[in-house]
Amino acid sequence: MKLIFSVFVFLLCLYSFGQFPNIVINSDHEPNEPTIFIDPTNTNRMVAGSNLNLFYFSDDGGYTWTTTILESALYGVWGDPCVIIDTAGHIYFFHLSNPDVGNWIDRIVCQKSEDNGLNWTMGTYMGLNGTKAQDKEWAVVDRNNNNMYVTWTQFDEYGSSNPTDSSIIRFSKSTDGGLNWSPAMRINKWAGDCIDSDETVEGAVPAVGPNGEIYVSWSGPMGIRFNRSTDEGDTWLAEEIFVSDQPEGWNQQIPGIYRCNGFPVTMCDISGGPHHGTIYINWTDQRNGTDDTDVWLSKSTDGGDTWSAPIRVNNDPPGKHQFFTWMTVDQVTGYLYFVFYDRRNDTLNLNETEVFLAVSNDGGITFENYLISESSFIPNPALFFGDYTNISAHNDVVRPIWLRMHNSERSIITAIVNGSELSTNDFYSSIPVQPEQNYPNPFYDHTWLAFKVERPAMVTVKVTDMFGREITRLYDNELLQPGRYIEHFDAGRFNLSPGVYFFKIISEKKTFSKKMVLL
């Protein structure tokens, strides 16, 4: 049975209008652990998912979403979702299992849809190994040959403290669109325990290199380790390579959070730009103290043989928590994007939590941080918050995804972020133009657009629809003198339908947007 509904953003006035409009994807079924993926062939087409069995689809750039509840009569659906799109446009939803015949999380399941999530296969699977638990999988597509690669953790017995039980990292691939999967193989030499804490090996996220290499890292008792394959996963290094220690371990204590991990995320730049081939690993740890969790990045320019010292991504003063990081690489621009929860503005120590985006356009040397959540929240430590966030980017279209908890209610949120509107040259300093929110908003037929010019500047002012199509241009690269400008906008003149529109100001290669809602 499927539940499908549309989320009409302009009717959900739950959040204020900000620089990065927040979109509520779903707030039903107590969702958590979100995943998101932008189709590189059509960036208006996006897929997402969340625990335990929720799939979301958008064909308008993430402004509206439909929701489907997945089922698998053969294998069950038990969370840890990962969604990807292959080169044929087919959608895949990877998850853990809970079969009627078999054992809880005894395999990794892949369900496929060829009609934007309306219908799904019952699924194929990988990794079945008796009663052993298969957990925390992630998948990637090699867009050169459409191979799919999956890595995950196997527990001899999940949660066991028996020293004879161990955890290992496993790998499987499909070369036929998910119909069949190769026998799962172990790719790490140094095992962990089965307690599901710092001494357990977990967090394997695979990435594809410029020549089809497969790269993956994970956390465990020996810090963050890395392995690679140069023959589509048939063989791997006999012993993994050390990347970094992870002080205080990957199982981190964050006030107000049920549990929190700092697993690494592996990505590789295959954009063809100046950092082509660079491998990046992003994680969190508490090397600066248990009251100061930070976001870190290490990189390799020699295929993973050597790694840089950890580079701090969050740019706030010491003493606050940043946690649940994820990163991606825009494979058109080569820019790095990070999303993480942040408490830099929690001045009263109430566990007030926001969401920040970080961006680097110089290969991870410098970073700018941006507040992207339109309102803060205080999580409920009695409720499961999930184990990860996620982010996807392609050709300046950036969509982070996260869980927001308000009054113990959980919602999955994304933000509308355009990479071209971000700058790593101090975006908020020396701003020549400061836009104001249109008034009234929402509005019927008429509204007023206002902005301030701080110093003489060349300015373009326009109104666009939510797809970026221009409706009218009020100023066209005109030299404006300091002062406050107010313009009248008559929607009826353009025969506009009710919906979401944007008032945009462009000056000195910076773009500022305000969301307008026409009723």
Summarize the helices and strands and which ones pair or pack.
Layout: E1 22-26, E2 35-38, E3 46-50, E4 54-58, E5 66-69, E6 82-85, E7 91-96, E8 108-113, E9 124-126, E10 133-142, E11 147-155, E12 167-174, E13 185-186, E14 202-208, E15 214-219, E16 224-229, E17 241-244, E18 251-252, E19 260-261, E20 265-268, E21 279-285, E22 294-300, E23 311-312, E24 322-329, E25 336-342, E26 354-360, E27 368-371, E28 390-394, E29 397-406, E30 409-415, E31 417-418, E32 433-435, E33 446-453, E34 457-465, E35 470-480, E36 483-490, E37 499-507, E38 510-518
Antiparallel strand pairs: 1-30, 2-3, 3-4, 4-5, 6-7, 7-8, 8-9, 10-11, 11-12, 12-13, 14-15, 15-16, 16-17, 18-19, 20-21, 21-22, 22-23, 24-25, 25-26, 26-27, 28-29, 29-30, 29-31, 32-33, 33-36, 34-35, 34-37, 37-38
Overview of the structural elements:
By secondary structure, the protein is mostly beta strands. Among the domains are: 245-419, Neuraminidase (6 Propeller); 433-518, Immunoglobulin-like (Sandwich). It is 0% helix and 43% strand. It contains no helices and 38 strands. Strand 10 (133-142) and strand 11 form a beta hairpin. The two termini are 34 Å apart.
